[in-house]
Amino acid sequence: IVERPTYLAAIQSFGMFEPQFLSVPLHHDGMDADALDRALSEHQVKLVYAVTNFQNPTGITYSSSKRQEIADVLKDRNVALIDDNPYSDLRFMGEEVAPMKAFLGDQAIMLGSFSKLVSPGFRLGWICAREEIMEKLIVAKQAADLHSSCFAQRVVHQYLVDNDINSHIEKIRAAYRRQRDTMVEAIEESFPAGVEHTRPEGGMFLWVTLPEGISSLELFGRAIKENVAFVPGQAFFANGGGENTMRLNFSNSDEERIVEGIARLGRAINSMMS
């Protein structure tokens, strides 16, 4: 079971093992718990995969009440929840929410990453799971690549020893907050009526929904002519859909570029809608 929409790379990674994907609708506060319950009742499910904080691609965060609902649905069922959680330290507004492990205990497998905090190029992450699962994951990791780069691990370790990671995170949060606010303001100024978007409280992305009938793939072609790019939303749907959606990233450009990029994208959207 995955969210609808869900993280593109998760679809690709799971897809290598040819699973049957079941997509559960995603609302502003998290996965639809009733739809999740129905999917679990009607199918033999092995895993539930969710990005609960500043979800990629939408930027939404699961509320505490929604996490409890999902935990209530999953408890007493022989199914694990993968809580993919690389963005939780990137909260720059709102209140912290406890991870799914606080609601589900050993039934949750939590993933984290240094890529979003220290160095994307090192591709270093971590997993928190119960011992019997960790033993199998270690064997699978050894079969895949023996182990993560010792050099990269030593560099990150030394960075953490020599530097105040919390101070560094505060700088990231402040920068991303400015970039997020700039993009939201630019969207509200440059995009036409009828275009909706999320307002993330952290992370790196926001989600745009165009009016029905407007193809983000067609829009992409027009946007490229304006020298601006985005990720069309269809790629984030495991079972099809999302033709009128797209993901925007606010963490990779300064405020001036964001304003200009959104203005260019706004012109492309206006030209399609007219």
Structure description:
- By secondary structure, the chain is an alpha/beta fold.
- It has two domains: 2-161, 3-Layer(aba) Sandwich (Aspartate Aminotransferase, domain 2); 166-273, Aspartate Aminotransferase, domain 1 (Alpha-Beta Complex), CATH 3.90.1150.10.
- 42% of the residues lie in helices and 16% in strands.
- The protein has helices spanning 8-15, 33-42, 64-74, 101-104, 131-145, 150-162, 165-190, 216-225, 255-273, and strands at residues 2-4, 23-27, 30-31, 47-50, 80-84, 108-113, 125-128, 196-197, 205-209, 231-232, 245-249.
- A four-stranded mixed β-sheet has the order 4-5-6-7, with no helix packed on it.
- α4 (101-104) links the parallel β5 and β6.
- The radius of gyration is 20 Å and the shape is globular.
- The relative contact order is 0.13.
| Beta-strand residue fraction | 15-25%
The CATH topology label of the largest domain is Aspartate Aminotransferase, domain 2
- Contiguous low-pLDDT stretches (5 residues minimum) are none
Largest sheet: 4 strands, mixed
In what order do the strands lie side by side in the largest sheet?
4-5-6-7
Q: What count of domains describes the coordinates?
A: 2
CA radius of gyration is 20 Å
- At the first level of CATH, what is the class of the largest domain? Alpha Beta
- Overall pLDDT, averaged? 97
Within CATH, the superfamily of the largest domain carries the name Type I PLP-dependent aspartate aminotransferase-like (Major domain)
Give the terminus-to-terminus CA distance: 39 Å
Assign the structural class, choosing from mainly alpha, mainly beta, alpha/beta, alpha+beta, or little secondary structure: alpha/beta
Estimate percent helicity: 40-55%
Report the CATH architecture of the largest domain: 3-Layer(aba) Sandwich
* Shape field: globular
> Helix segment count?
9
Oligomeric state: single chain
Total DSSP E strands: 11
* SSE series: EHEEHEHEHEEHHHEEHEEH
